[in-house]
Write a structure and sequence with these properties.
- This protein has about 400 residues and is an alpha/beta fold.
- The chain has 2 domains: about 5-55 and about 305-395, Aspartate Aminotransferase, domain 1, CATH 3.90.1150; about 60-305, 3-Layer(aba) Sandwich (Aspartate Aminotransferase, domain 2), CATH 3.40.640.10.
- The protein contains 14 helices and 15 strands.
- The chain has helices spanning about 5-15, 45-50, 60-70, 85-95, 105-125, 145-150, 155, 175-180, 205-220, 270-275, 290-305, 305-325, 350-360, 385-395, and strands at about 25-30, 30-35, 40-45, 100, 130-135, 165-170, 185-190, 220-225, 250, 265-270, 330-335, 340-345, 365, 365-370, 370-375.
- Helix 9 links the parallel strand 7 and strand 8 (about 220-225).
- Bound molecules: pyridoxal-5'-phosphate.
- Pyridoxal-5'-phosphate (PLP) binds next to helix 5.
Length: about 400
């Protein structure tokens, strides 16, 4: 079967809830993927930052294979010998006291929302079922009904109501607007330290710090969604560190498993996480030994290979080189670490055609919203690989 055969069969039998580039990947290693025609591409999306450690990292695959032949699933009805060590290693690394493992990012966000509401009732004393959670315009936290209930993206939300109540929206990057939206019933604010899906939107310097102060002043929880920004992507282990801030509740996923297996987690203090009592929350697969073994290996790779540091250094280098490229289509180039957005002018005709042109030249990027090309390669990338990609990027950014 060739590319067109795979595209046809997928489009005939699969729901069309994505609009992928027509490259059919059959193999991947490190920063590279290979399609069914044997053509090699530089991956500049990293599965939305899930493969920060690089594709098929040998140490993570080894952990997967070894654990798969021992025990894969116990359910949480019983204990397993991977869960405890995983939780401890994750807490030691992130500076939180407790963690709750789930599978996908959206599930972990839902978990955090439940936790914030319960905290609102039990600790803050908000009247039952009156808790409000402040969210920000342009947010992306996943695809469940409750999460899309506070999306500001019509395409994510409109055809799927009725919506879950209890959410309030304020502009992103505007701490004063957040403070003005707080009521006695406000339990939490939920935000991404840098908005990924919105197009690599970096808030004004000190925003997270001001949000942290406002949360402290009004007894409101700060919930940071670091599913995409966390685990080295922005040049720090967690993006909140850029502002020297620790959230009360942090949600991570994606690169927590190096892209090998769905693993997510909610991190918090013992006081907050301790609010969950037996039976109040759960997941059949959450915390399974295969997931835990994979995540332990993925975290070790993150630390041993100094991927956050590499992201900071190579991100700065990549950004500098991109800014040097002359292009009449580019409006702005911004980034932190290896999390870079190239925003095109409205008249450039949309980012999609540039992503198609990059693909033709051996570089895989995906348009983010209409006008942004995101460059987010695996964090193991090196200078020669970036240098090797620049001529193709230069060509693509200078389409007619
Ligand atoms: C990807 C993502 C999610 C959702 O994660 P899934 O695993 O797709 O459910 C939530 N928040 C952010 C910031 C993300 O990037």
């Amino acid at each position: 079967m060739n590319t067109q055969d795979f595209v046809s069969i997928e489009d005939q039998y699969g729901a069309h809830n994505y609009k992928p580039l027509d490259v059919v990947i059959a193999k991947a290693y490190g920063v590279w993927v290979e399609d069914v025609e044997g053509k090699r591409y530089l991956d500049c999306l990293s599965a939305y930052s899930a493969v920060n450690q690089g594709h098929c990292h040998p140490k993570i695959i080894q952990a997967l294979v070894e654990q798969a032949s021992k025990v894969t699933l116990t359910s949480r009805a019983f204990r397993n010998d991977q869960l405890g060590p995983f939780l401890k290693e994750l807490c030691d690394l992130s500076g939180y006291e407790m963690a709750l493992p789930m599978n996908t990012g959206a599930e972990a966000v839902e978990t955090a929302l439940k936790l914030a509401r319960k905290w609102g009732y039990e600790v803050k004393g908000i009247p039952r079922h009156k808790a409000e959670i402040v969210t920000v315009a342009g947010n992306f936290h996943g695809r469940t009904i409750s999460i899309i209930s506070f999306s500001t993206e019509p395409g994510y939300r409109d055809p799927f109501g009725p919506f879950t109540p209890g959410f309030v929206t304020v502009p992103y990057g505007d701490a004063a607007a957040f403070e003005a939206a707080i009521t006695p019933n406000t339990a939490a604010i939920s935000l991404e330290p840098i908005q990924g899906e919105a197009g690599v939107i970096i808030p004004p310097p000190g925003y997270m710090k001001r949000v942290r102060e406002i949360c402290d002043r009004h007894n409101v929880l700060l919930m940071a969604d670091e599913i995409q920004t966390g685990l080295g992507r922005t040049g720090k282990l967690f993006a909140c560190e850029h502002d020297g801030v620790q959230a009360d509740v942090m949600v991570i996923g994606k690169a927590l498993s190096g892209g090998v297996y769905p693993v997510s987690a909610v991190m918090s203090s013992a006081a907050i996480m301790g609010l969950f009592k037996p039976g109040e929350h759960g997941s059949t697969f959450g915390g399974n030994p295969l997931a835990c073994a994979v995540a332990r290996a993925a975290l070790r790779v993150m630390v041993d290979e100094k991927l956050a540091q590499n992201s900071a250094a190579l991100g700065e280098y990549f950004l500098e080189r991109l800014v040097e490229i002359p292009s009449r289509h580019v409006k702005e180039i911004r980034g932190k670490g290896l999390f870079i957005g190239v925003e095109l002018k409205p008249e450039a005709g949309g980012a999609r055609r540039f992503c198609e042109a990059l693909k033709e030249r051996g570089i895989l990027c995906k348009e983010t919203h209409e006008n942004v090309i995101r460059f987010a390669p695996p964090l193991i990338i090196d200078r020669p690989t970036i240098d090797g990609a620049l001529p193709a990027i230069r060509e693509a950014l200078n389409l007619k």
